[in-house]
Design a protein that fits this description.
Elements: H1 2-5, H2 19-24, E1 33-37, H3 43-50, E2 54-59, H4 62-74, E3 80-83, E4 96-102, H5 108-115, H6 118-121, E5 122-133, H7 137-140, H8 154-160, E6 165-178, E7 182-194
Parallel strand pairs: 1-2, 1-4, 2-3, 4-5
Antiparallel strand pairs: 5-7, 6-7
Length: 196
């Protein structure tokens, strides 16, 4: 499915970073090691690399990741690219200064498994940045998964991210204008977590 979605020359979700990530980007120290989950065509990873971060982009789509590599080349930066299925991906142990999850919508069991690794995978002082659609997004129809099981709620995330200090966790509606894939008002949940 994702290979087909990314097959064209255009960037489905654009080439500019997610607005929520952009607002948090100054929190990462220069040279920080950051993992971008479900990074697709690379817009967020490339943006962070342009800011001097050491970025790994992981996604299951080789087509999307090839476009991520081309985007990085066009912006004069390098990112590490890793093709993997996040359903059985290991985040490692105290390996990352930051983990970024922007619209990383997985089946519930896979999502819980992934999120339950976040605390251990971050170094002390590491940051977790997430924005995802909530089930209310189905009523808006401006992007995102086709069913509520693939979306997230604050309550679920508080449980799944146990151990992290949640500096921010909020449900908001905001304009999400990111390429042709996200085009309008979005019902999202936003998380900024810290490993104390």
């Amino acid at each position: 499915m994702w290979d087909d979605r990314y097959a064209g020359d255009d960037y489905v979700y654009g080439t500019e970073p997610n607005d929520y990530l952009r607002r948090q980007a100054d929190l990462f120290a220069d040279g920080a090691r950051v993992l971008c989950l479900a990074e697709g065509e690379g817009r967020n990873a490339v943006y962070l690399a342009q800011r001097g971060l050491n970025v790994t982009a992981v996604d299951s789509s080789p087509v999307g990741l090839a476009k991520a590599g081309r985007l990085a080349d066009s912006r004069g930066v390098s990112i590490r690219i890793e093709e993997a299925d996040l359903a059985d991906y290991s985040l490692g142990h105290e390996q990352w200064d930051g983990i970024v999850s922007i619209f990383c919508h997985l089946p519930p069991d896979a999502r819980r498994r992934l999120h339950q690794q976040v605390f251990a995978a971050l170094k002390p002082g590491g940051l977790f940045v997430l924005e995802a659609y909530r089930p209310e997004q189905l009523e808006l129809g401006t992007g995102g998964p086709p069913n509520a099981d693939l979306m997230m709620t604050e309550a679920e995330l508080r449980t799944e991210l146990e151990g992290l200090h949640l500096d921010e966790i909020q449900s908001v509606e905001r304009p999400v204008i990111e390429g042709r894939g996200h085009t309008g008002m979005g019902a999202v949940v936003q998380v900024l977590g810290l490993k104390v």
